[in-house]
Design a protein that fits this description.
It is a single chain. With 564 residues, the protein is α/β, with parallel strands linked by helices. The protein has 26 helices and 10 strands. Helix 2 packs across helix 3, helix 7 runs parallel beside helix 9 and helix 13 packs parallel to helix 15. The radius of gyration is 29 Å and the shape is flat. Its EC number is 3.1.26.5.
Length: 564
């Protein structure tokens, strides 16, 4: 039984795992696949990135291993019949049962199915092996954890002997197995092997090694993993950066804490409560009191602020002595209630907005009926620009059980009054909202007709997602967007985490309803992002609070002698 400790370097498992002849697998596997593919494409090399989908690999393996593969002269079989045959084959039944085990975390049952399949000569595909390795690597506690660790290495060895080509998921599970044995060196070695074999690592591939090095306090090794991530084009997210801040703080590496705080600023913007705790712990530490300079070149700091677009200077820790660390909040103008520092609004490069509009148009055209979206773009070009765009469906349902045209009209009139040109905003509504339900009311019909005649209404076609339309219109017109949609679902995740959150912060108007009617919450006049002041103060926003129902919580860190 394996209990906790890392696999010793004399362990047969360690020797096997480090010396796996993976290049040999790739060479033999390429020869194995070539006759089936019958493709004029160039032969894959060790550095090629295999682009087979998991299902395709499964089919290739099944075809190659089957003695009953149909010959070219065999009668045609329908796709439905072929799918049924695959599903009911021993391999298909095993796949279904293993998937059920994975869904319910049943490691022992999965291992029993594996042993039975091996004894019955059922060939295992990449998917089978990946599910087994995932289960083995995910059961970290108690007897199941020991069994998972031991059997996981055995299953990986069998996969190698079966000449099944591994993919990123295989290596990631293997790295997690190494961490189950508390061996981050092995986990990191596996990630490096991936890159050498042309398999692009993902963020999850690096996680096991990075988090374990951080947990063990091996800061330099954690930085090596981080550097390898950067070299591979993998971007660390909040958990990874927080772990690096923690290990840097515990290792008295103030320079690295400074570097990681700035990476947190550009990547995350607002931090979770757990990250808040790690940052707070740093500023309250003895090491934090030691870092920094008592005198600095003010002009150089200001140049850094201008060069960075505002909100930070990047010149290192300023000031000396203990930090005063408080939980605080900002007033409507962005002034800290603790230290009196006024936060700044960080500008967006117009070129970034243009690039974002282009990429948004491309994404929308791929996911909507292309002709429909092109017609909308042409309509917008002829009727725009607007000072505001309204997500009509969202606004009409704020604090309402049924869609309210009265509420939507109230907002439209408010926005018209606010407009410098006194122009109506653009209202985006789905076709069903314009033709059915409350739209049949005579008053609402007249309202819709007046908006349409004024060129202030666009109804999105049946089957479309109106989110693409109102978002594109607001970005293209460089105007305000009125919606309470948090824009966090899959559609908006496609837009990335670099530019979109910054754009949304500066353009989204949110609504609340009170006894006095509609309340508009305009974009804040400051940026809700980690800010480093010219005289060394730090302000870190959290995800706690939204400045509508409850004030957003911030961390304020100032040198005691620099308090305003």
């Amino acid at each position: 039984m394996l209990h906790g400790g890392a696999l010793p370097r004399t362990s047969p498992l360690f020797s096997f795992f480090i010396k796996i002849p993976l290049p040999l697998i790739f060479r033999t596997s390429c020869r194995f696949f070539r006759p089936i593919l019958r493709s004029p494409k160039p032969k894959p090399t060790l550095n090629s990135t295999y682009s087979f989908s998991m299902d395709k690999r499964l089919n290739l393996c099944t075809l190659a291993l089957s003695d009953n593969s149909p010959s070219p002269s065999s009668p045609a079989v329908s796709n439905k019949a072929m799918k049924k045959a695959r599903r009911e084959s021993p391999e298909g039944v095993l796949r279904h049962k293993l998937d059920m085990c994975s869904r319910h975390g049943q490691l022992v049952q999965a291992l029993s199915l594996y042993d039975e399949a091996r004894s019955n000569g059922v060939p295992l595909s990449l998917h089978h092996y990946n599910v087994l390795l995932y289960l083995c690597s995910s059961n970290g506690g108690g007897d199941d954890g020991d069994v998972g660790l031991k059997r996981g290495f055995e299953i990986f060895r069998q996969m190698v002997e079966d000449k099944v080509v591994p993919n990123e998921a295989t290596f990631t599970s293997a790295a997690r197995l190494a961490i189950a044995g508390e061996d981050p060196e092995m986990a990191f070695h596996l990630v490096k092997q991936m890159k050498g074999l042309g398999i692009p690592p993902k963020l999850r591939s690096y996680g096991p090694a990075l988090f374990e090095f951080c947990k063990k306090g091996e800061a330099d090794r954690a930085y090596e993993v981080d550097a390898h991530m950067v070299e591979s084009g993998v971007v660390a997210e909040e958990p990874e950066i927080t772990a690096l801040i923690k290990v840097s703080s515990d290792s008295s590496r103030g320079d690295k804490v400074y570097e990681m705080l700035h990476r947190l600023r550009t990547t995350v913007r607002q931090v979770s409560e757990s990250t808040y705790g790690v940052v707070e712990e740093w500023f309250k530490s003895e090491e934090a009191a030691k870092v920094g300079v008592e005198t600095w070149d003010v002009n150089k700091v200001r140049e850094g602020v201008v060069r960075g677009g505002g909100g930070w200077h990047g010149q290192g820790w300023l000031g000396s002595g203990n930090w005063r660390v408080e939980r605080t909040q900002m007033d409507e103008e962005g002034t800290c209630s603790c230290c009196g520092e006024k936060l700044v609004s960080i500008d967006i490069d117009p070129k970034e907005t243009e690039n974002f509009a282009t990429s948004l148009s491309k994404l929308a055209s791929q996911r909507e009926v292309r002709g429909d979206f092109i017609r909308f773009q042409e309509w917008l070009q002829g009727h725009g620009p607007f000072d505001a765009v309204v997500d009509g469906a969202n606004v009409g349902l704020v604090n309402q059980h049924n869609f309210s045209f009265f509420q939507l009209d109230t907002l439209v009139n408010r926005l018209r009054q606010m407009s410098p040109s006194k122009r109506l905003p653009l209202v985006i509504l789905h076709q069903n909202r314009v033709t059915g339900g409350p739209a049949q009311n005579p008053n609402n019909k007249r309202l819709l007709e007046s908006w349409k005649k004024s060129g202030a209404l666009y109804s999105t076609p049946v089957g479309s997602n109106d989110d693409w339309y109102w978002l594109y219109a607001a970005v293209n017109c460089k105007c305000l967007l009125v919606t309470n949609d948090e824009m966090r679902d899959h559609l908006f995740q496609l837009l990335g985490t670099s530019f979109f959150p910054r754009w949304k912060e500066k353009h989204q108007v949110r609504l609340s309803v009170s006894r006095r009617g509609l309340n508009l919450h305009m974009p804040p006049p400051y940026s809700i992002v980690i800010q480093e002041a010219e005289d060394g103060e730090w302000h870190v926003p959290t995800t706690t609070g939204d400045d509508i129902e409850t004030p957003r919580q911030w961390l304020c860190a100032t040198r005691a002698r620099n308090t305003k």
